[in-house]
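Researcher: Sequence recovery benchmark, item below. Answer with residues only.
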């Protein structure tokens, strides 16, 4: 796989090679993308007809990078008399400052060329290798080049201009320049993106308009407002800072959000709003960045299902899965406007609402979203119980372009029996029942405390109790000592051992008498690789250490499992899971990928990268933040924050300062178990903020 360099800001990103050049094929993600459309598929620099070689790359910020280049390729040593700098910044489109330095004692005359093309591929066309149905065009004028595409009413344009005079043609732009001895030449290249109506009038200019300084100041403020981490293990500090920066990069502001942001799911395929991913990332980030959760809840609530729509798998009360803005969605060749085919986002919406209130004390949001929360609970009973037996099931109604598996493991072979057979539909995976149980218990608390409806609260608690009893009877495989991965369409147990059982601990649906057996399986060599808990046990027929959901290790999955382990009192096991994933993060320079190989740690000595993992990816970026919560044992209790640490050996002293919440700001301290003077304490700060409705993040 060729190395790539990415910069991004929200929904807009650029993927290039290490020279800064873009040469996209129809099936790769090189290019400039915004709102799910590729606005540049070619952007290639030559000097006197020669491509360039890379000396170094400065990863300045997530939205800015700098390439240091010299003319010529293919030689071991290049005696360069010229050097070239490309300083590229994303800002809705991008701008690139191109600088050429002459190191010779004589002037030099150069022909500088940028070849530019745009195929306007929809991301789904790239993923599925589909051809375009509209027509591209070019237009010269107004001191620049317009690259355009139109299919009926769908019209997009890319505008290329330069601060220095250039000769534009239909394939790019050229400069004929002379640089004095030991002199330099520079120009700023601007690439703007526009969505147009059929008559050519602008509908939306896809551009940020923020200056370099504003982007940098925004990032600095984001980091400064987050809690400060200090510890004796430098890789943890690196990973924490990387997570903060990547979370800033993944912020996405929906068009209805008035500048507020929520987490996009991940680069390159998922730079948009996802129900499940945005909710889980917001849950992971609550102790550090609570503001993400409010936007996530409001925006998902605004798009909650209101009707029965088979094409979009929509039901009243259902929380959306994925929102897209590209051509295929516009022409209803894909259902993502939005698409609702997920079974877990709806109960998790209620879980997030409750957890957000516990941390922030934002009663106003709880009251604002009462209707949406009640509708989500009603969906569980009225639309998700496809078999009429009180469980949450899924089966797609859109057989052509809908998702087959609508749990978080949404690949085709992720749900299987031990012998490798795949069950039919509908399916009721185990973790969905845990989410439903948790949602009802949490909604009962909100109903009693904020909605003034104790009868509704009593009903929900009764339903949750019955669900827990039923679940522990029907899903428990007594001869194996763990919960079935799912129930099949006949009510039979899908008996593979998978990481889904770890989510049951987090939800609280596991009976205390069964918890130790569940934990023993999760921490067994068949499940725990040394780096983390695998998605599927090595004993299962479909196990593959580099299969997407059938043997890889997912950091987000492990973070929720560690949270569940802490809930049931298994502190050492939670610390061991956290230590394994955070050790792996060090090999990835602090940036955890979506997934990595499930090979035994003793076999590889390092985590093996999964070949097509998203990076950065939101819930992997959020995983270290949740691990900090589990290691420190942070738990809101009224207007106080409980700290009950269980820190892995080797971390030493650990402190997280200025933790935001309904208590104002507090500091938490801990040491690794066994370290001299091990201690834990909590120092409250800014107690005057205790009565605030919410804490910005």
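Model:
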């Amino acid at each position: 796989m060729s190395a790539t360099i990415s910069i991004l800001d929200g929904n807009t990103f650029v993927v290039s090679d290490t020279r800064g050049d873009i040469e996209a094929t129809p099936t790769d993600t090189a290019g400039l993308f915004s709102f799910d459309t590729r606005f540049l598929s070619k952007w290639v620099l030559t000097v006197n007809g020669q491509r360039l070689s890379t000396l170094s790359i400065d990863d300045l910020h997530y939205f800015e990078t700098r390439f240091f280049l010299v003319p010529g390729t293919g030689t071991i040593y290049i005696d360069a008399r010229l050097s070239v700098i490309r300083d590229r910044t994303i800002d809705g489109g991008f701008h690139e400052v191109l600088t050429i330095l002459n190191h010779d004692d004589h002037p030099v005359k150069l022909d500088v060329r940028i070849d530019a093309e745009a195929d306007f591929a929809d991301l789904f066309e790239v993923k599925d290798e589909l051809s375009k149905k509209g027509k591209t065009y070019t237009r010269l004028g107004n001191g620049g080049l317009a690259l355009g595409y139109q299919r009926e009413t769908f019209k997009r344009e890319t505008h290329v201009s330069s601060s220095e005079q250039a000769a534009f043609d239909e394939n790019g732009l050229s400069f004929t320049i002379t640089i004095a001895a030991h002199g330099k030449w520079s120009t700023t290249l601007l690439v703007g993106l526009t969505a147009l109506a059929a008559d050519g009038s602008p509908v939306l200019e896809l551009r940020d308009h923020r200056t370099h300084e504003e982007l940098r100041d925004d990032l600095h403020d984001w980091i400064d407002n987050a809690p400060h981490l200090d510890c004796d293990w430098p890789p943890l500090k690196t990973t924490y800072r990387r997570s903060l920066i990547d979370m800033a990069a993944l912020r996405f502001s929906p068009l209805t959000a008035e500048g507020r942001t929520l987490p996009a799911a991940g680069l390159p395929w998922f730079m948009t709003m996802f129900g499940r991913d945005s909710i889980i990332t917001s849950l992971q980030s609550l102790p550090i960045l609570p503001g993400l959760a409010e936007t996530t809840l409001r925006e998902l609530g605004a798009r909650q299902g209101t009707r029965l729509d088979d094409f979009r798998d929509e039901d009243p009360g259902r929380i959306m899965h994925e929102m897209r803005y590209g051509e295929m969605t516009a022409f209803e060749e894909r259902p993502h406007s939005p698409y609702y085919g997920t079974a877990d986002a709806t109960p998790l919406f209620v879980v997030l609402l409750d957890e957000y209130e516990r941390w922030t004390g934002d009663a106003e949001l709880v009251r604002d979203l009462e209707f949406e929360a009640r509708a989500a609970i009603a969906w569980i009973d009225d639309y998700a119980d496809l078999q009429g037996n009180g469980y949450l099931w899924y089966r797609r109604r859109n057989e052509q372009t809908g998702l087959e598996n609508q749990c978080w493991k949404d690949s085709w072979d992720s749900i299987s029996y031990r012998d490798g057979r795949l069950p039919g539909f509908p399916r009721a995976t185990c973790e969905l029942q845990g989410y439903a149980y948790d949602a009802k218990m949490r909604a009962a608390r909100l109903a009693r405390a904020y909605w003034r409806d104790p009868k509704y609260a009593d009903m929900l608690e009764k339903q949750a109790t019955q669900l827990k009893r039923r679940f522990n009877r029907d899903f428990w495989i007594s001869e194996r000592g763990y919960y079935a991965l799912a129930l099949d369409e006949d009510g039979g147990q899908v008996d593979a051992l998978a990481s889904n059982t770890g989510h049951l601990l987090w939800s609280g649906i596991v009976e205390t008498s069964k918890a130790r057996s569940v934990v023993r399986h999760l921490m067994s060599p068949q499940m725990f690789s040394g780096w983390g808990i695998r998605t599927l046990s090595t004993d299962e027929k479909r196990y593959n250490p580099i299969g997407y959901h059938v043997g890889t290790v997912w950091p987000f999955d492990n973070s929720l499992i560690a949270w569940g382990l802490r809930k049931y009192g298994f502190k050492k096991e939670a610390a061991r899971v956290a230590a394994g994933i955070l050790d792996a993060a060090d090999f990835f320079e602090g940036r955890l990928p979506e997934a990595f190989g499930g090979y035994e740690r003793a076999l590889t000595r390092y985590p093996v990268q999964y070949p097509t993992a998203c990076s950065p990816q939101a819930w992997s970026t959020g995983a270290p933040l949740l691990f900090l919560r589990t290691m420190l044992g942070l738990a809101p209790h009224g207007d106080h924050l409980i700290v009950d640490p269980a820190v892995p050996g080797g971390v030493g002293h650990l402190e997280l300062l200025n933790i935001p919440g309904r208590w104002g700001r507090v500091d938490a301290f801990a040491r690794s178990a066994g370290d001299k003077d091990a201690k834990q304490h909590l120092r409250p700060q800014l107690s005057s903020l205790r009565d605030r409705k919410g804490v910005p993040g």
